[in-house]
Amino acid sequence: MQKKTSIYDPGAALTTPEARAVFIADALATGNDAHFVASVGMAISAFGSTEMARLTGIAVADLEQLFGIHGDPDLDRLMKVLRVLGLSLSVAPMLFSRPGR
What we know:
The chain has five helices and no strands. By secondary structure, it is mainly α. Helix 1 (about 15-30) packs antiparallel against helix 2 (about 35-45). The model has no long low-confidence stretch (mean pLDDT about 90).
């Protein structure tokens, strides 16, 4: 008997602000900027790029470029996207500090 396989789409799980928050926070915790930006891009794809473009005023092509693996979005556009995704950005003290700081 042959097993049928399917392709897993992690974006399919990003349907709520809570799920998106966990996913993006986990990527941010890696300290890898590209990973963080790409995770926001995946959340945009799951939300719907066309709808995101309509709600933020950022063209779909720009969203794909800014939030792709080599993207580098400015703070203004990052904040617009996060708001539409139902997320906010916050700052917290680091759990470790460098000597002399």
